[in-house]
Design brief:
With 468 residues, this protein is an alpha+beta fold. It folds into three domains: 161 residues, 3-Layer(bba) Sandwich (FAD/NAD(P)-binding domain); 114 residues, Protoporphyrinogen oxidase, mitochondrial, domain 2 (Polyamine Oxidase, Chain A, domain 2); 110 residues, protoporphyrinogen ix oxidase, domain 3, CATH 1.10.3110.10. The chain contains 15 helices and 22 strands. It is globular, with a radius of gyration of 23 Å. The chain starts with 5 loop residues before the first strand and ends with a helix. InterPro entries: Amino_oxidase, FAD/NAD-bd_sf, Protoporphyrinogen_oxidase, Zeta_carotene_desat/Oxidored.
Length: 468
């Protein structure tokens, strides 16, 4: 008797869900497992936060613009999809920090602000002499906590380097990655490499000199081309994934409204009045959307109150003749003691010159962070006026943009607070006890960078295939 075709549902058509659906389809064929895969997406398009706009010859990312090349999951996915030859690397350049309304170059030899070469740091204008002396305390301070004990990232950094160094240099760099409050974010869930380095070497400065693994986070002035994208933008990956899902049933504009247990299967009730009965399910949607579905079962309570920050990206295109040269500057981040509204600015025309028309310039700025999220709700006109004022203050930009693209991402950046890893482990354990056929994956759980989401999609597919 032929084995019964097992039905798998993937809820969420972002990069995590797409990856899971793709590898379920691909590996089931390779392993001779009969699967029927259904992908359910609540919006009209696939890709989630990956959204590429092509306008007047510009390739503009409304969401993330790249991924870290050190993490190889996307490279593997691109290779499997046959688009690895379309990968491109960023052009190198300098990073600055806006402190009290002046741009200060990040000293050469810095890794996430940690000085591993002292002469450039000593001549830097980012810190006073007393602040620089306090940084040297890192050489003599003992480890802060036991290896398995979590703590706020900000407390960890302040203890090692002092308040001035953290506020002027490290906080804007770290917050640029997570758009969060470093005094609440979990060290273990955001930058575990720093804690590991302290445990092994005691001194972070000494440890990073020996082990440069933290380069993966970027902002390393010595590194070459840390980031990658595709020659047509990140949506190249989304289009390739969608094209390969020919054997999957893809439902767009369809939302899961309720979850029921039906013996060893799961019944997903949809907003169009229909339902999907599945043997295995991957929930690859944000925790704030998944938690209400499982509330009747007392599940996902550990993530119910996990906050998410709202941000917006503002891309402004200019004629190159109207904007003065920014030398080798690729971008800058903004310290909280500055009166700039923007939190960061990337010179996309320098970072990705092949994605900008010749003779044009593209500035990609960000607004919104913990404590300053209402700004995201302002009108496009108000946001454009504030961003232009900041570009004038920081870079001397006087020109009027040829066009502006404002992209709002409401509650898009999950905040991994202290104890996040333990809460997620407990959440997944409880889910397996009630719904062993359900996998949780995506940015709310084990990393929201694109490679992390791809890895989670791959892992979810592998776990399901191991059960078949």
């Amino acid at each position: 008797m032929a084995a019964r075709v097992r039905k798998v549902a993937v809820v969420g058509g972002g990069i995590t869900g797409l990856t899971a659906a793709y590898y379920l389809q691909k590996q089931s064929k390779e392993q001779g497992v009969e699967l029927e895969v259904t992908l359910i997406e609540a919006t009209h398009r696939l890709g989630g936060k990956v959204q590429t706009l092509r306008k007047d010859g510009f390739v503009i990312e409304r969401g993330p613009d790249s991924f870290l090349s050190r993490k190889k999951s996307i490279n593997r996915l691109a290779r499997d999809l046959g688009i690895e030859d379309r990968l491109i690397r960023n052009s190198t350049g300098k990073t600055s920090i806006a402190v009290e309304n002046h741009l200060h170059p990040l000293p050469p030899g810095s890794v996430m602000g940690v000085p591993t070469v002292f002469s450039p740091f000593l001549t830097s204008s980012l810190c006073s002499w007393s602040g620089k002396l306090r940084v040297a305390g890192d050489f003599i301070l003992p480890q802060s906590l036991a290896e398995d004990e979590d703590q706020p990232l900000g407390r960890f950094l302040r203890r090692r380097f002092g308040n001035e160094m953290v506020e002027n240099v490290m906080e804007p760099l770290f917050s640029g990655v997570y758009a969060g409050d470093i005094d609440k974010l979990s060290l273990h869930s955001t930058f575990p490499e720093l804690g590991n380095t302290e445990q092994k070497q005691r001194s972070l400065i000494r440890g990073l000199r020996k082990n440069r693994t933290v380069e993966q986070m970027g902002f390393d002035t010595e590194s070459k081309s840390l980031f990658q994208t595709f020659d047509g933008g990140l949506s190249t990956l989304i289009y390739a994934l969608e094209k390969e899902l020919a054997d999957c049933k893809v439902l767009k504009n369809i939302k899961v409204m309720a979850v029921e247990k039906s013996g060893d299967q799961v019944l997903l009730n949809l907003n169009n009045g229909s339902s999907v009965l599945a043997d295995e399910v991957v929930f690859a949607i944000p925790h704030k959307h998944a938690q209400p579905l499982f509330e009747p079962f007392g599940l996902l309570e550990n993530v119910k109150d996990m906050p998410s920050t709202s941000i917006a990206t503002i891309s402004m295109a200019f004629s190159g003749e109207q904007v003065r040269d920014t030398s080798e500057l690729n971008g800058f981040v903004v310290a909280r003691n500055s009166d700039l509204v923007i939190t960061a600015c990337s010179m996309a025309h320098r970072k990705w010159p092949s994605l900008t028309p010749e003779g044009k310039k593209l500035f990609r700025t960000f607004i919104g962070r913990v404590g300053d999220e209402a700004i995201v709700d302002l009108s496009d006109t108000e946001i454009e006026k504030m961003v232009l004022a900041d570009l004038k203050k920081s870079l001397g930009v006087e020109a009027t943009p040829e066009f502006t693209v404002v992209s709002r991402w409401k509650h898009a950046m999950p905040q991994y607070l202290v104890g996040h890893k333990e809460r997620i482990a407990e959440t997944k354990k409880e889910m397996q006890q009630v719904f062993p056929m359900i996998q949780l994956a995506g940015g709310s759980y084990d990393g929201f960078a694109l490679p992390d989401c791809v890895e989670q999609g791959m892992a979810a597919a592998n776990r399901i295939l191991a059960r078949c």
